[in-house]
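Suppose you are handed a protein chain with no further information: no name, no annotation, nothing but its sequence. What can you learn? This example shows the usual starting point.
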Amino acid sequence: MSLIWSVWPWLLVCGGGGYTKSNVARCWTYETAALLDRTLKEDIPPHDFYYEYYSDADYKLKVKPTLSIENLNTKQYLQNVKQQAGLHGSTPLLP
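A reasonable first move is to predict its three-dimensional structure. Written in structure tokens, the prediction is:
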């Protein structure tokens, strides 16, 4: 991430959708930590609502893909997002 931050001091991170309920919190927690150059423990502490949110017994941060989900974000759609966010034409789009 230090290389990315050295090139782009700001970054807009957008979700692509297609998440399963049990993976969305894990995914964004992991990605946010990566963006902040932080390492998180793999174990998720158990709590009263664990099964309601994560619906498995692993108690692990790592996302286990259950399906192959196609990325339906077209280049045109991403260009529109850039435009609406006020980003310049030279701002790269990273998959």
